[in-house]
Specification:
The complex is a heterodimer of chains A (about 325) and B (about 850).
Chain A (H helix, E strand, L loop, with lengths): L3 H5 L34 H7 L6 E2 L8 E12 L2 E12 L3 E5 L6 H8 L9 E9 L2 E2 L7 H6 L1 E4 L10 H10 L6 H14 L3 H4 L12 H14 L4 E5 L7 H14 L4 E5 L3 H7 L2 E6 L2 E7 H6 L4 H7 L5
Parallel strand pairs in A: 1-11, 4-9, 4-10, 7-8, 8-9
Antiparallel strand pairs in A: 2-3, 2-5, 5-6, 10-11
Helix pairs in contact in A: 5-6, 5-8, 6-8, 8-9
Chain B lengths: L15 H36 L7 E9 L7 E6 L5 E6 L3 E6 L5 E6 L8 E4 L5 E5 L4 E14 L6 H4 L6 E4 L2 E5 L5 E10 L3 E2 L6 E9 L2 E8 L3 E12 L4 E7 L2 E3 H9 L7 E4 L5 E5 L4 E6 L7 E7 L9 E6 L5 E6 L4 E7 L11 E8 L6 E6 L5 E6 L4 E5 L4 E6 L10 E4 L5 E5 L3 E8 L7 H5 L14 E2 L10 E2 L2 H32 L2 H15 L3 H18 L1 H24 L2 H6 L3 H28 L4 H5 L7 H20 L4 H10 L2 H32 L17 H25 L3 H9 L4 H12 L1 H17 L2 H6 L17 H8 L8 H35 L3
Antiparallel strand pairs in B: 1-32, 2-3, 3-4, 4-5, 6-7, 7-8, 8-11, 8-12, 9-10, 10-11, 13-14, 14-15, 15-16, 15-17, 18-19, 19-20, 20-21, 22-23, 23-24, 24-25, 26-27, 27-28, 28-29, 30-31, 31-32, 33-34
Helix pairs in contact in B: 1-21, 5-15, 5-18, 6-15, 7-15, 8-10, 8-14, 12-14, 13-14, 15-18, 16-17, 18-21, 20-21
The chains are: A alpha/beta (about 325), B alpha+beta (about 850).
Chain lengths: ~325, ~850
């Protein structure tokens, strides 16, 4: 991991707690009133002035317990700024969807959560994230251990060219687990969890590359959950799949809900509407609006959100 | 009427130009493709074409039979001239008769010497030199010479002028032949004799033989009293008289009385033969008894060995005996028709005082009749054998192969004598009343599958061996054409260079593709690839003329450097870990410099430790130690078992307490953890050396010694140097291909692995390398192919000694270097020439098999990795 990343992080130990910087005050009990649309800041202004945008956060989120907290996170690819001061709290045990038009930075944000962007050479970041209260971008963070706490599922199914069994137990293998019984039980549990056990059981020793695309993606999910992560990061997990496979994955996400905190990027608004409990809308590197899915899709506060979900752009 | 619209005319078919271009390109591409395949095949075809005649075998044809006058006595020798017009026979009294080969007409009949009938006759194998011994103790040495002259047609009488082409007639002192281009060629046989020399025997000479060496002539004779006389001829020049006189010096051995004393009976031997240097005299009885007399000291010949030519057999008789060309082997024909080939050998456990033992190297089966006549060729190891039933067989002694087998020509009777024509293009056999001759094509008698790939018992070798020694200064030399030492050399060169090159190249590829900053990789990869364009002759030159002499002076330093440089490199990187992050990130660019400094320190340390190690472990002189002189085996074992012990020590130190260790080092600061790591590294190194020492002492105590296997006598040009230089030559190609293979592993697999929380090293070793295995494998295979075929480096740095020895400090000769070295001096279409083509074919087949295996394995790997 490049050393420069550490240097880029400002030492700011005594940060204020999350949400206070948002427009929404922390409150308990009853939810505050929604502001009127014309009172809200304009995304267009932020874009024109090249400044960050204060996210419109729905009050329902305040009641949720946050597992991942993103705090004024900015990211540059070289000179180009891809993320603008993003702050959001990802609620524990819920499915949160990131939506937005292409190039809005949702995948970048997702990959920043488990520091996969470290691999890209020109990336520079500012701000911090926290997983269960522990800093992600702090100076003495063990990135490897951090990633073990987060399973990741990619856009394209990417099983390793090994047997199905070895694919699933890979997170345990790199931990040095050699006990056959443990490996076997974890493989079964994970494959059952990923609804693949019935199909995979007779061919555990065969190459994973012999599976169909949908099966491969479920295998990747099985692999992601085998390491018992706290968070599952899904980067458009269905974009390379046909509708039948997609619905199976969606059913699977439905079942994983509750056990895992899922952060999912999707291009497909119906999918976001179907599976997620919270939805965050991103636009040109800014997190525009963040709230319960049904509210975002039915009564968005921001005009940009409405324009997007009604298909006027994107 | 419809309105007219302007639009391009719609063409229903492709335009002509397009069709022509398509057709032309189709043919050009097809021709190019087929041409490539054909030209590669042609190479193979040419090789096979040149090689095939080697295995075709010989042939006899065109037999002619003529009546000759009945011979007066026992014929001991026949012969013919190189144009195959005159034949001659010589009997036991030294009486010569020459005859026209065309019709058997006698041309000349004369005693060889004016002294009259001889009491002993001898001939040199494969030449027309003879020696005659007489009853008065004198000897006459001489030779038969054929003179050739071309005559004008107008000087010839009418009947000769109209001679049909190819026919010959007696004319004057010789024979006139009309050649195929119409010339008149006269051949005449002349007897040239030196003046008689008195050997000082004082009695009749019964057995006689003589040889010509570089220091003069030597002779051995036996009188009828059983005394053996060994004589050296010295020519003395009298300046006053301007005359040359020949005097003889030498001693005698009373064989009869020695034998009498030992065995109780005595009879005159039947044969006497002298070795080519005149240092050994063989006395042979027809009963099969052989006495070998050591005559290295001419003044004092001594009996050295006695043996039976028929070990373990009873009642066999020697029926014919002659030395083989070069006089190193004795050809012994027996009454069962077999030919035994005996020669001197020097086994390490010889019971005889001079360390020499006679061995029968070959026993060649013949026809079902006693062997009556033996004739060696004057140019090769081919011999003609005549049998009692009149049959003739032509065999090659070294390979024991039968070149031609001629059944008895009717009622001719036993073959009295046989002869091979001087050019090996004819065969002459004398029967009691007639002579028969054949045209002969011996083919390539030295060539056979066994000679190339099997163990062959060569003259004066202790046992059958694989030897490559293709040519020498004389025809008398026995060519040794085993390709096995060359194949061995090729394999040895390949293995040692791969041992050096593959780990470095693959580690470099893994490093640049997985760990190195892309900015640096963009610079380093082309630099490494540039190494591939370095001509191998330059590498060979550097290896042979710079590295070899340097290494020769610094062997101990080089050996310890193999271990010290990695040690210092690892120590340096451990220490670097100890730097605080602030410093290490600030000094990031200096990391390389620091490690180079560590390596330099390792080199320095090797310079200091080397001589010390030499004193302590290798009895003060490593090269003498390697030679097996002085010191015990501990030091060598220490060097050899150290790599295994390093692994063992690592397994002991690092593996079992991994968890504990991680918790431990994780407790304190980074500096403390790094210090602990350094301590562990040093402890592990110490443990490894200690372990190696213990194992070495144990192995030595058990009586094992590495010298004589992979360690041994140090030669300046050796496998270590070649391994280094050729490793350098194959590194770029393996590196480039392996790096390409690793880099082409899809990024999403790396992402998946890292996303699971794997370290970059785990990602590389568990995902990237297995996925790229087919590419890495083919990279190694292509490097292997390069090493197998590499010529200049091995030619210049391997010493080119065709020996089979795994010793890393000894040289070798590869197939390719051998071809490069010998082809320029091989006579076109000779056995040697074709054998070199065979070597090329073997090389071709080796690379073909290697590449096929590589491709099959690669495909298997690849099937796994498809559909990524």
């Amino acid at each position: 991991m490049p050393e420069t990343l550490h240097a880029a992080i400002p030492e700011n130990e005594d940060r204020e707690p999350f949400m206070t910087e948002n427009t929404m005050p922390r409150a308990s009990g009853d939810l505050p009133e929604l502001p009127a649309r014309e009172d809200l800041p304009s995304v267009a202004d932020a874009l024109r002035e090249e400044t960050s945008f204060a996210t419109v956060v729905h009050p329902e989120l305040i009641q949720e317990e946050a597992l991942v907290e993103i705090e004024r996170f900015s990211l540059w690819y070289g000179a180009k700024r891809a993320l603008w001061d993003i702050s959001m709290a990802i609620p524990k045990g819920k499915v949160t969807a990131l939506i937005g038009p292409s190039g809005c930075g949702k995948s970048t944000l997702l990959r920043s959560v488990n520091r996969m962007n470290d691999l890209i050479d020109t990336v520079r970041i500012d701000g911090d994230m926290r997983l269960d209260g522990e800093s992600i971008y702090g100076r003495n963070v063990d990135v490897i251990e951090l990633r073990k706490r987060m399973g990741m599922v990619f856009q394209k199914p990417n099983p390793f060219p090994m047997s199905i069994f070895e694919n699933v137990v890979y997170p345990l293998r790199i931990e040095g687990v050699k006990d056959k019984k443990i490996l076997r039980s974890v493989a079964e549990r994970s494959l059952r969890g990923a609804a693949l056990w019935e199909e995979a059981e007779p061919r555990l020793r065969e190459s994973a590359l012999g599976l169909s695309g949908g099966q491969q993606q479920r295998l990747c999910i099985a692999r992601a959950v085998a390491g018992e992560p706290e968070v599952l990061l899904m980067d458009e997990p269905c974009s390379a799949l046909d509708p039948v496979a997609t619905s199976k994955i969606e059913d699977l996400i439905e079942e994983l809900k509750g056990d895992y905190t899922i952060l999912m990027v999707t291009h497909n608004m119906q999918q976001a509407a179907r599976v997620s409990e919270y939805t965050a809308f991103m636009y040109l590197g800014r997190l525009v609006e963040y709230g319960p899915t049904d509210r975002i899709f039915t009564q968005p506060l921001c005009s940009e959100t409405e324009d997007y979900i009604t298909g006027r752009f994107g | 009427m419809s309105e007219t619209r302007v639009q391009p005319r719609r063409v229903k078919s492709s335009r002509r130009g397009v069709r022509v271009a398509d057709r032309v390109s189709h043919w050009v591409i097809t021709l190019g493709g087929i041409g490539t395949i054909v030209s590669v095949l042609m190479v193979c075809v040419v090789l096979v074409w040149v090689v095939l005649p080697l295995f075709a075998g010989g042939e006899v044809s065109g037999r002619t039979e003529v009546q000759v006058a009945a011979t007066s006595g026992d014929v001991v020798r026949v012969g013919e001239d190189e144009y195959r017009t005159i034949g001659f026979s010589i009997d036991r009294q030294g009486h010569l008769r020459s005859f026209l080969l065309d019709d058997g007409t006698t041309i000349v009949e004369t005693p060889l010497s004016s002294l009259g009938p001889a009491s002993a006759v001898s001939f040199s194998p494969g030449s027309n030199e003879f020696g005659l011994g007489f009853a008065d103790g004198r000897v006459v040495l001489g030779r038969l010479e054929f003179t050739t002259s071309y005559l004008d047609a107008k000087d010839l009488p009418e009947d000769l002028r109209t001679l049909p082409e190819g026919k010959s007639r007696p004319h004057g002192q010789g024979v006139l032949q009309r050649t195929s281009i119409g010339q008149y060629r006269q051949q005449a046989l002349q007897v040239v004799t030196d003046d008689p020399v008195d050997l000082g025997v004082g009695g009749p000479i019964r057995l006689f033989d003589q040889t010509t060496t570089s220091s003069g002539r030597l002779a051995a004779a036996m009188d009828d009293q059983g005394r053996l006389f060994v004589r050296r001829f010295q020519v003395e020049y009298d300046m006053l008289e301007d005359e040359e006189t020949t005097v003889v010096v030498g001693g005698a051995l009373d064989v009869a009385s020695v034998e009498q004393e030992k065995t109780g009976n005595w009879s005159l031997p039947d044969h006497l033969a002298l070795s080519s240097l005149g240092d050994t005299v063989y006395l042979i009885w027809n009963s099969g008894r052989l006495l070998r007399v050591d005559a290295r000291d001419v003044e004092k010949p001594v009996l050295a060995e006695s043996l039976s030519l028929f070990p373990g057999e009873k009642g066999r008789r020697v029926t014919a005996l002659a030395p083989l060309l070069g006089r190193s082997s004795l050809l012994v024909g027996d009454d069962l028709g077999r030919l035994g080939v005996w020669f001197r050998t020097k086994p390490p456990d010889a019971p005889n005082p001079d360390g020499i033992v006679m061995r029968r190297g070959h026993l060649i089966a013949g026809r079902d009749a006693a062997l009556t006549a033996i004739a060696s060729s004057g140019r090769s190891r081919v011999v003609a054998l005549g049998f009692d039933d009149g049959g003739i067989r032509i065999v090659h002694v070294t390979g024991e192969g039968v070149i031609a087998d001629i059944p008895p020509p009717g009622d001719a009777g036993p073959a009295l004598a046989v002869a091979l024509a001087p050019k090996e293009d004819g065969l002459l056999a004398l029967y009691p009343r007639k002579a028969a001759s054949w045209a002969l094509d011996v083919g390539y008698p030295e060539a056979s599958f066994k000679a190339y790939f099997g163990k062959v018992w060569y003259e004066e070798h202790v046992k059958p061996e694989y030897v490559w020694q293709s040519s020498s200064g004389t025809d008398e030399f026995e060519p040794k054409l085993s390709l096995v030492p060359l194949i061995f050399g090729t394999v040895k060169a390949t293995i040692y260079s791969l041992l050096f090159g593959v780990p470095l190249a693959l580690l470099a590829a893994v490093f640049t593709s997985e760990f190195m900053h892309p900015k640096w990789k963009r610079r380093i990869k082309p630099t490494l690839e540039l190494m591939a364009s370095l001509p191998s002759v330059v590498l060979g030159f550097i290896a042979g003329l710079v590295i070899s002499p340097f290494l020769e002076k610094h062997v101990p330093q080089a050996l310890v450097a193999v271990y010290l440089i990695p040690f210092f490199f690892l120590l340096g990187s451990q220490l670097w870990q100890g730097l605080s992050p602030r410093w290490s990130s600030r000094l990031g660019v200096l990391r390389g410099v620091f490690l180079v400094f560590a390596v330099a320190l390792g080199v320095q340390a090797a310079g200091v430790v080397g001589p010390f190690a030499e004193r302590v472990f290798f009895a003060g002189d490593l090269r003498l130690w390697l030679d097996g002189q002085g010191g015990d085996a501990t030091g060598g074992w220490l060097l050899m078992v150290l790599p295994a012990c390093v692994l063992a020590a690592w397994a002991v130190v690092a593996l079992p307490f991994r968890r504990t260790w991680e918790r431990w080092t994780g407790l304190g600061s980074r500096g403390r953890a790094a210090a602990l790591e350094v301590v562990r590294f040093l402890a592990g190194s110490g443990l490894a050396v200690g372990l190696a020492w213990g194992v070495a002492v144990l192995l030595t105590a058990a009586g094992f010694d590495p010298r004589g296997s992979v360690l041994g006598t140090y030669v300046q040009r050796n496998a270590l140097v070649v391994g280094f230089a050729m490793g350098f030559a194959i590194i770029p190609i393996i590196y480039t291909l392996a790096d390409d293979a690793l880099s082409s592993v899809p990024q999403h697999l790396r992402a998946a692995s890292l996303g699971c929380g794997a370290t970059p090293w785990q990602t590389a070793s568990r995902v990237v390398i297995p996925t790229a295995m087919s590419g890495i494998f083919s990279a190694v295979m292509i490097g292997l192919g390069r090493a197998v075929g590499e010529t200049m480096i091995v030619l210049m740095a391997a010493g080119n000694t065709p020996i089979m020895d795994w010793n890393v400090f000894n040289g070798f000769r590869t197939l390719s270097a051998n071809i490069a070295e010998e082809l320029p001096e091989a006579v076109k279409d000779s056995t040697h020439y074709r054998t070199l083509f065979l070597a090329a074919l073997v090389l071709f087949v080796m690379t073909l098999v290697l590449n096929t295996v590589a491709e099959v394995v690669r495909q298997r790997f690849r099937r796994r990795a498809t559909r990524l």
